[in-house]
Amino acid sequence: MSGSWMTTRAWLLMLPLLVVMISVIGWPLVDTVRLSFTDAKLVGTEGSFVGLDNYARMISGTNFQRTLVTTTWFAVISVAAEMVLGVLAALLLNQQFRGRALLRALMILPWALPTVVNATLWRLIYNPEYGALNAALTQVGLLDAYRSWLGEPNTALAALIVADCWKNFPLVALIALAALQAVPRDITAASMVDGAGPIARFRFVILPYLVGPLLVALVLRTIEAFKVFDIIWVMTRGGPANSTRTLSILVYQEAFSFQRAGSGASLALIVTLLVTVLAVAYAALVRKAAGSTA
Amino acid sequence: MERKSLLFTAFIYASALLLAVVILAPVLWLFIMSISPAADLSAKPLRWWPQEVDFSRYAVLLSTVENSAGASFVASLYNSLRIAGMATIAAIALAIPAGWAVSRTPAVGWSLSVVIATYMLPPVALAVPLYMGLAWLGLLNNIFGLALVYLTILAPFTTWLMKSGFDSIPREIESAAMIDGASLFQTLRIITLPLAAPVVATSALFALLLAWDEFFYALLFTSDLRAKTLTVAIADLAGGRVSDYGLIATAGVLAALPPVLIGLVMQRALISGLTSGGVKG
Fold first, then answer.
1. Do B231 and B195 fall into the same domain?
2. CATH of the domain at A255
3. What percent of chain B has pLDDT over 70?
């Protein structure tokens, strides 16, 4: 069979996927770009060309800047905590102890719980009047009076981060555990014979095996955290006093609550650009990591 | 072998216990809330264990009496099932030929890379035109419209999983069948697809979980019981004026049950899918 026929056949087989992807991803993306240069409303007016006005207004606005800071905080802290907790849990699960298989099976629970259910669950836990967190902390004497964890600007973001970490660190743990199990036993044994202590062993023998998979998990989680919408919408809707408003929430408000499709689109593309930068950094990091461990 | 001191062993067991509590406590509490009488949940100090077990909320939510809380819950449950089912079937139908083509013909592989790159796109980048497009087609607040939109998430993911699946099936088996006179489609149907069945199943499960979990598009594109999904119904309950927190918890338990069961039963396949995804990027 000739190569060109093979290629033509491959394109024919891909055609349905490509047609669907162009209509539900390609066209909307192009149209978002077009809308971002107009003052279109979500319903009704087509809008007219306004050049870069939307971008200029959005970037210079305090809403955007404050939201960018909030999003960055959310992404950096939750992902960092997930990485550390995930690796610690994986190191634990890589030890021999009774009940290990059961514990490893349980790790799938937070991951399998739908995001909205997780958000709802934590919203109930943080409830200012009847929540389990208030009850537990007062009953052990750590807290004098019930607090509104999601209702106060200085605790709301931290409370969200805890809820997000609880759901996502087990996945990091499972990825790290798979990598740990790929570390050959004779290498760790040899390093012990050579007198390496546990910390040196982790740093020089085990960590090289973890770097690649963890880096991938790190960047994928960072991109996800940067796009975060669901958990925040269900728990705080970006409040109180916009203290938990992330970029995706801001786009939602601009485009759908205020129905300003044009400026919403420009904001969405700014978010897309930021995520793309992260994704490109990701590709570069992974290539570099693959080069150094191969 | 490593010699382990008693202290080290104690430390391991203590950490394992801590991890188990951290993982289990919130999930168990969700379940306990769902079976505690409302009075127990609003008691101060809070009653951690129900005085009497009360499963009545499950009956309330699963009842189909008209205009009850149950009727709307059941409707959204049914919508979620249908939307996730349709989107999964469509995604797999697109992914099988495309995944096979890319696996066997690397020359077209770049197009799959482009499709997968779109997976990084924030949904907000597509939401406004999708909203306008669905409105124009009359598919807002419609299960078919939402299922179509879900392909933006499911199709790239399933195609990529199918492609890796086909990669692990040697193409020599296919060539042998073709030399024996089988046509391409006979070969795929009789030889390749049966071998790829486990990958198809894993991809379909992942797709179902993704669709079941989706919230953003469902929030934007559905407005009432004709298309509203379970995730939106639960968010409504959580953000509404429901005074019985146990009822919200019950809805959460019911929505979590299918994915948690799939997760526990399919543990091995899911983890290998997730970790290979993590490793291969």
1. yes
2. 1.10.3720.10
3. 94
